[in-house]
Design brief:
By secondary structure, the protein is an all-alpha fold. Helix content is about 60%, strand content about 0%. It has one domain (about 20-40, about 50-165, about 175-255): Alpha Horseshoe (Serine Threonine Protein Phosphatase 5, Tetratricopeptide repeat).
């Protein structure tokens, strides 16, 4: 999830100085994600098939991993990211865990791993990961929202509201409004913040994040129809950045969860 002092399109992670080359290389990889979501490159061709895009990304990451025995942590994370974005959640998790085993200091930076843990139903583990991420990225409302979701699923919505993570100073629209919505209420202020944006590209991005997190909140509040409505809308974006792909995975997750179990 992006740093709070970056434009909402950016997907950078906190950069710190660390003596281990693995950490430096991995953080450079995280920074490179922002190139995928510049205002110029946000929209994809309507004819582009997401599954083809993800297949190519996974194949490239697999090839890179095999070419670098025994598989450095940053390449493990790159493959895990490609798998997660392509909806292959169960396949992504072992690669995140392999990276952490190789370089334990990476764990608090891997918010993506926390998202994968949520989709895998490992809510307690996901909650702990987002708590760890807050220590290196304390102003990120998105991190607070995913922590809120995991706590609601692991226990209940009252517990999630009681244990909200602070995320002060996130200036990205509509993040402060999303944070204010977590304790309860409705999406009126979120919608108003989006509508107040004049720049078309910025408004498109803000609307996407509003839909994504209104869907997430509805899921946490056990409102499946509302959650699916917002998440489908988020998933329909033409943007192809990391969280847009997460929205598509989430929409599929909600749809599959709503299907009756065959006997």
């Amino acid at each position: 999830m992006p740093l709070s002092n970056q434009p909402i399109q950016s997907e950078t992670m906190t950069m710190i100085t660390h003596p281990r080359q693995t950490l430096i290389t991995l953080l450079i990889y995280f920074l490179s994600l922002s190139c995928l979501v510049s205002p110029i490159a946000v929209a994809q061709s309507p004819s582009m098939d997401h599954s083809d895009r993800h297949k190519q990304s996974i194949e490239r990451a697999q090839s890179s991993l095999r070419a670098d025995p025994p598989g450095s942590a940053n390449r493990e994370v790159a493959l895990a990211d490609a798998l997660l974005r392509g909806g292959k959640v169960d396949e992504s998790i072992p690669h995140y865990e392999s990276a952490i085993k190789q370089s334990p200091e990476l764990r608090p930076y891997l918010w993506q791993y926390g998202i994968a843990l949520f989709f895998a139903g490992r809510f307690d583990d996901g909650r702990e990961l987002f708590e760890a991420h807050r220590r290196v990225n304390p102003n990120d409302v998105e991190n607070a929202a995913w922590h809120f979701l995991c706590e609601a699923k692991a226990n209940d919505i009252e517990s999630a509201r009681k244990l909200l993570l602070p995320a002060p100073g996130d200036r990205r629209v509509p993040m402060s409004e999303i944070l204010d919505r977590l304790p309860g209420g409705d999406g009126t202020q979120i919608a108003a913040a989006v509508e107040a944006i004049d720049h078309p590209t910025s408004k498109q991005s803000a609307r996407f994040y509003a839909d994504l997190y209104l869907g997430l909140i509805a899921d946490a509040e056990n409102k499946p129809e509302e959650a699916q409505r917002f998440m489908r809308r988020a998933a329909e974006t033409r943007m192809t950045h990391y969280m847009a792909d997460v929205a598509r995975v989430y929409a599929d997750h909600l749809q599959s969860s709503s299907k009756p179990v065959e006997r």
